[in-house]
From TrEMBL, chain A:
GO terms for cellular component: cytosol; endocytic vesicle. Coiled coil: none annotated. Residues 42-76 form the A20-type domain. GO terms for molecular function: DNA binding; guanyl-nucleotide exchange factor activity; small GTPase binding; zinc ion binding. GO terms for biological process: vesicle-mediated transport. This is Rab5 GDP/GTP exchange factor. InterPro entries: DUF5601 (IPR041545), VPS9 (IPR003123), Vps9-like (IPR045046), VPS9_dom_sf (IPR037191), Znf_A20 (IPR002653). Keywords: Metal-binding, Zinc, Zinc-finger. Residues 528-573 are annotated as: Disordered. Pfam families: DUF5601, VPS9, zf-A20. Residues 287-430 form the VPS9 domain. Residues 547-573 have a biased composition (Basic and acidic residues).
TrEMBL record, chain B:
GO terms for molecular function: GTP binding; GTPase activity. It is a lipid-anchor. InterPro entries: P-loop_NTPase, Rab21, Small_GTP-bd, Small_GTPase. This is Ras-related protein Rab-21. The keyword Lipoprotein applies. Its main location: membrane. SUPFAM superfamilies: P-loop containing nucleoside triphosphate hydrolases. GO terms for biological process: protein transport; Rab protein signal transduction. One of its GO terms (cellular component) is endomembrane system. Coiled coil: none annotated. The keyword Iron-sulfur does not apply. It comes from the Eukaryota.
Amino acid sequence: MFTSHALVVCIPTTPISCALCRSRRSTGERRMEQGNRLKRLSNPDLRCRNKCGFYGNPIYMGFCSKCYKEQVRDAPGSQATPLVAAQDTTPTKSAASPGAFAAFTKFNVKKNVFATAKGKGKLFTKGKVTAGFDQPKEKKSKKSKVSDNTFSEFLKTLQKPAAKDLVQHLKFDHRMYSESVVCLADRFHKQITDRNDTATVEEQSEAVQEFYTSMSERLTTHTLFRDVAEEQQEDMMDGIEKHLMTNIFPMLATHTHTHFTSPLVPLVPLSSSLTRRVYSPDSCDDAMRDLLLVRRIRMLHWLEPTHLDIPLNLHDLQVQEHVSASRQSLCDMDQKKAPQDKLLCISRCCQELLAALKISRDGPASADEFVPSLIFLIIYTSPQTLYSNINYISRFSHPMRIMSGEVGYYFTNLCGAVSFVENVRAKNLRIEEEEFNVKMGFVNGKTDIDLFLMEGEVEEEEDRERIMVLESCTERMKELSGQLKHMLGDINDLSRKVTESTRGLTEQVSTILSMPPPRVLLYQSPRVGQEGGATGLPPGRSTLQAPKRERGHERRWSGDKRSGDRKGFTSTL
Amino acid sequence: MASPSDAVGRRQATVKAKVVLLGEGAVGKTSLVLRYSENRFNDKHEQTLQASFVEKRLNIGGKRIQLAIWDTAGQERYHALGPIYYRDSQGAIIVYDITDEDSFHKARNWIKELKRMLGDKVTLCIVGNKIDLDRQRTVTERDALEYAESVGSQTLLHFSQAEQGNH
């Protein structure tokens, strides 16, 4: 009790009152305080929900601390921790609960597949009015709407005839592209069914790149754009690229996604987002490379900043802030669709890192410090789909963007850093080969890739065994269900026979019983009665049995006579 | 921004060039870049965040040139990353430390590699840094000049941060 009290600082002027102090104050003090408090408590929203006269607190669900404690104590099983704690534990955006998200992704994929199955001709129907493009039928995400808006805004800034031409040209090309994508998708499907996985993403990428080339050629040669400034032309290309990529993104997502046929896929964990299906399609080994990179990073967990001579002063708060912002940007990349946006994340990441370096070094950083820091940052952050992201950008981005300029420089550095992580050796870290092998968990000189492949083989073997077991089980199940069906038929036959014979029997019995009793029996009846007495049957029993049947007196026949009669019955059947 | 009068010829005039900065770690690549960028455009680069990527706009003989200088990590362990950086570059600045024979050797390796990978398209510029430490010089000027001529390097500069002068 006292420890919790120590945590609550009691300042008379603060609206949150201390539960323990209430009992210790004299009545005079309390009255005075109450007067003050009533003034302060003019706003009913701030008061405790229990109406005890004290202030409530949102972290105590609107109760004051004392009433909250009572509430919790009175209601066992209710949430004992204040809401603040619950808020703290809610996962961040990047680490959203994977189960729910995977389910959502599955749903989305199903939806997309369904949309494709509905007919390819219908997939590209009437589009949006804003820019006049054909849009895929699927419901557009918020983001692409935003991009549409920005794009139409951007078009407004252009000169009118130029913009018109641009729209026309884009419309034309967009349709062309849509058709070509459909063609590619068809071919892709065929290839998948033929078990011949060739890289169709490359073809898609080629189509996009061709479009960029034709577009920029048009911009530089067409009379309408002659007077447009160079910077503006670049902006135009930016806008076009962003618009195109954001809009064809769902298309690509639909067409590139097919059944998992790659033998490596069982090794890959369920994708964490829908976007992953686009930039790590089955036709290439992006997903595997992603996994390998993550595994390698995990193996490098022992790496210290000193191994790479990183001048980052991680004890400095400001540096820490910049580094965490940098990591955040690197992770944010997964949420972006257009290559530009992804590149923007990369450059933000690098700039934050450079800022951190600048503080640590007290001067502008050069590549000598920047590259190792970036490598360390990647290992420190361990992004799940870095490789796929890089490949996606290099496939679908305008080449000028990733080859030149500051963004291009950062992208190149990122590629370099990833390649370093992938190929890191003992001499790169200035440690002994043996130490490196031990730390990385390499056995008998086998690298993680060897181990990975071996694991894959083992798993494949296991999978094959499992499949065999499953197949034998299915066989047996089929057999059993056949037998069961047979037996069910037998049972039906039998029950039908039984009902038939029962009905026949009942009818016969009723007809026989409705006939007058044969005279022979009447004659014999007294003898039967004597016999009954002779056998020593208690007279009560015969009288007891009598009311059960309508002709009770006829039932007093002796056992052997009845059996004789029964024989007569059976013979008539 | 150019005036409207030269709007017609402007497009051909702007030349974009990528220059990669190579050299062993701690030969003074950073100071070289900083001196170069801040000497000409003082106010703009006062608050330099970094010296790894520097963009320069030059005007030479009426031609607008946009120079992008890409710094690379010079440490030996990152040597393998070189091709990623110097791919598609039009020029290369190779820096060595005149007091460090080893750095000159590394510079020669870089040039050999550049020649092999990029052919003769690339413009080379060899820089001997730290000439203020002339007394500790281990790489003679004559050797450097001879080498520069042999590889067809367009320029051989000697540079010093302390004296603020190019030779």
